[in-house]
Every structure is written in C-alpha cells, then in structure tokens.
Write a structure and sequence with these properties.
The protein is an alpha+beta fold. The protein has helices at 2-10, 13-69, 82-93, 117-131; strands at 99-102, 107-115, 134-142, 148-155. The longest helix is centred in the first third of the chain and has 57 residues, at 13-69.
Length: 158
C-alpha cells in the first residue's frame, strides 16, 4: 500500500487529476458493463416473457369462454345393452368375437381369438370416443402368427 501511495505522491497535480478522471470513467464503464447492461437485458427478457404469457392467457380465456358458451352435447342414445352395441360395432369393424358375455346392462366381457395390435387399439379407441364406453381391462397374449388373443372388459360409465 505504501508503494502505491508513494507512486501517487510522485505524480504532479495535473497527472493526479487525469488519473482520477480516468479511474472514474473506468468505474463507470465497468459499472455499465457488469451491472446495468445485464439488468437491462434481464428486464427486456422478462417483458418479452410477460407479453407472450399475456397473449397465451388471452387465448386460453377465449377458449374457456367458447367452451362455456357451447351447448352441452348429450350422450348418444343407446339402443340395447352394451353387449349388443359391442357386437354390432365388432361386425361393422370386421372384428371377430370369440365370445361376448354380458355382466348386466352396463358391462360386457369379450374375447377375441386373433386380431392385429393396431386394429384392436383402433377399435377400442372408437368404442371409447364414439360410443362413450370405458375400457376397464385388457389382457392380451401374443399368438404365433403375429396377432393377439385378447380378453377385454367394457363398461358404460353412465
């Protein structure tokens, strides 16, 4: 410290003023680069995120209002039991049922001896989306020919 003080005292008053001004300018530049600029960038990024969030919130609010105003759709009227519906849909889709046993009006257990995986999943998906049936259980085993043997329990959740 004493070496720096000695060095400072050896400078003329004009050099001391010049060095003091240079130090102040260097401190200002470093303060701008290390503090103000990162804060400004952070504020700008936060403002951008806020703007995107506000647009998303507006879209979601619009969708929620559209859903609120949309008329409620009634479930499709069902003719017969779940067993009858599943038998009819299986015939329409070309699915061969080995058995289709009713467990009351709202539940059925069916067995398929051989079906390809995409066909089974697609058919069960249609039963869920178009007819409102719930798949309670699926048990599938692989046949030697690349098909599945499946036992499925379907129920009407209404």
């Amino acid at each position: 410290m004493s070496a720096a003080l000695t060095w400072w005292r050896e400078r003329t008053p004009r050099e001391q003023r010049l060095l003091a001004v240079m130090g102040a300018v260097a401190a200002a530049v470093l303060g701008w680069l290390l503090i103000l600029r990162p804060l400004d960038l952070a504020v700008a990024a936060a403002a951008e995120r806020h703007a995107r969030a506000a647009v998303s919130a507006g879209r979601v609010a619009g969708m929620a209002e559209a859903i609120r105003r949309a008329p409620a759709r009634a479930a499709p009227a069902r003719q017969g039991t779940v067993t009858d519906l599943v038998a009819r849909r299986a015939t329409e889709a070309g699915v061969t049922l080995a058995s289709n046993v009713a467990a009351g009006d709202a539940r059925t257990e069916l067995t398929i001896a051989a079906i390809r995986t995409p066909a089974l999943l697609g058919w069960l998906g249609e039963l869920q989306t178009k007819d409102g049936l719930r798949v309670d259980r699926v048990q599938a085993t692989r046949n030697g020919d690349g098909t599945l043997a499946a036992t499925v329990v379907l129920a009407d959740p209404r």
